[in-house]
Specification:
Four copies of one chain form a homotetramer. With about 190 residues, chain A is mainly alpha-helical. In chain A, about 75% of the residues lie in helices and about 0% in strands. The first copy, chain A, is elongated and about 60 Å long. At the A-B interface, α6, α9 and α10 of A face α6, α9 and α10 of B. Chain A binds a DNA duplex (21 and 21 nucleotides) through loops.
Chain lengths: ~190, ~190, ~190, ~190
DNA sequence: TATGAATGAGGATTCATTCAT
DNA sequence: CATGAATGAATCCTCATTCAT
């Protein structure tokens, strides 16, 4: 019986980690994360066996949230361009709405604490988008680049776009459109 | 803090820092950096007043090296497209030839140890390119986006390109061309 | 703290403690002991108010088991030499058969967690042997040393003997005899 | 140049460790050891890479001191019995004079932190005594037991003797003689 | 100026014990 | 009564920085 491991507390720790890591980097002390999460220093380790584990779980946690954001109302039946646009829009929207999570994802991605396996696992969530791009390459709509390259282009241009929106929130619409325009031109078969 | 006699030692420290930070991140101990540089761990602090200072100097050191690589044979008199292509090529070439420096630049860029001022100062070295893009926007060759946005697009697509080359050295030529093609399509006025 | 229903669980904990302490020392975590015992980590504290209490009880538990081993078929009516030989044999036999318990007894004996009172209490179980030696000293069979000294000599030589048997199980018989021979010569009145 | 690693400080740490471990066991905190040694908490780790290393070095340090005590005026040319008596006397004398070191040696010997290799190395210092016993066995003076068994008997009886002296300092002479008498009877060929 | 020993604040992690369930 | 989640004090160790040499 005993007290069951609370999912709330686990999430509180993950969210506290987001806050702290966004602000102070991957080296943010576990003690501070615990404090912000409102749990004891030791409790963090009942939910994550060690800091690395926390970092890896955090990476997947954010990726999963992003996936949900992008996939919840994914228009499977629409045209490819519309679907790509939808992916772009939802990604940018999420990034703008969750600047800390975006930063943390980037910091974790750079860190050698997050394993390749975790990164791979994180990417798998986006298989739908990957497949869509893959098909569009096959049918000649997009340039004949490796799908992973096209995906990476999307990621990097969307990130750049988000950075500019973050710096100029008033021009969210403008940069979102400009970014997509550039992106689309970059990948579409001429 | 007067400029110390040995400029060699200063560079040895910077280069050691590149090695260590590339491999172990910004948290690489100063003691290890000093050891690899072949100087005493205290000596590091006669060349850099503290670790943050070292990190900021390192950022500028690498940026400067990159600038030299890109600008040494910059074809001032050629067409804009050729100059942009030259910038792209030299950037990618440098990045491929100096994977550690590229990683370090990225890690330092993410870190909150490198000040905004330093980052700004690092960008100033690329004023020529910035200006060229600026002019090309004005004369209608490029899309009418803020120059900083166009520059950022270049940076992010070039980085993406380098990542793929790093993963597939045999296809250096292919990805360099594909990346540039995408980039050029992204920015050129339709 | 009222005597809990399950005496089995109490013993399970004591036996688990033997295992863990033999292998990892007195600092073996209560959580691990509980786990091996198959009880919740909190339950351990319903059987023993704290770790020190567990350690002290464990000391007595093993001593008591040893006493039973040595006394169950104690030949009260035989000659002194035979009785001493019987004590020696049963002690060595027990130690060889229960190497972990022997180690734990030694580790607990060294530890400052086990109180003097507990140690005294543990010795009282061997009053019969003590008395026998005492009488034998009085009637001139044994050297005129304090009984406690003679007892200690027996303990240390038996321990040494067991160590050698542990290292050379094939020569159990040999070392048992050699050890007793040395012991008897050491204490008998010349 | 810099400050040279002070041998004094190293010894201060070892001696502080003796004090603390004698009193509080192998789990004595490094911080407290450092404090008693009069050095910073961190300094301990410039002399010993970690606590285990400290423990192993401490074991050898004490063994070496014991060896010096026993060997400094070892009467190589005297009769075997005299030499054995000398070894016994100097051992007991050392143990009585250094009760803490004796306890620490015992505690370290029990601990799984001290490696077998260290223990072996610690024994090698007593090769002279070992050889003497070996020869005496060969020429029939001592019982025909393995030398290591005879050595162990000496160690255990001497330890027992020291324990009694520690408990009754006024009877040092008595127990020393009684102990040796028992020991000699135990090992000499009848 | 160069060195690396010295330092203590800081950080990850463990663990006996408590207490909600 | 049984459980194991919750806790924070305690512990080992690291590291930027200082300073004696």
């Amino acid at each position: 019986m005993a007290r069951p491991k609370s999912e709330d507390k686990q999430k509180a720790i993950l969210n506290a980690a987001i806050q702290e890591i966004a602000e102070h980097g991957v080296s943010a002390p576990t003690a501070r994360i615990a404090k912000i999460a409102g749990v004891g220093e030791g409790s963090l380790f009942t939910y994550f066996s060690n800091k690395d584990e926390l970092l890896n779980q955090l990476y997947l946690y954010i990726k999963e949230e992003l996936r949900e954001s992008m996939m919840s109302d994914y228009p499977k039946t629409e045209s490819v361009q519309n679907r790509i646009r939808h992916a772009w829009n939802t990604y940018v929207k999420w990034g703008v709405a969750n600047p800390q999570k975006r930063i943390v994802l980037a910091k974790l991605g750079m860190s050698n604490k997050v394993s390749e396996q975790t990164k791979t696992q994180g990417s798998e969530a986006f298989a739908d988008i990957f497949n869509m791009i893959s098909e569009s390459t096959a049918n000649g709509l997009l340039r004949n680049y490796p799908t992973s390259f096209l995906s990476a282009i999307m990621g990097s241009l969307a990130d750049t776009t988000m950075n500019f929106i973050a710096g100029n929130p008033a021009q969210t619409e403008y940069f979102n459109n400009a970014g997509f325009e550039a992106f689309w031109s970059a990948i579409v078969n001429a």
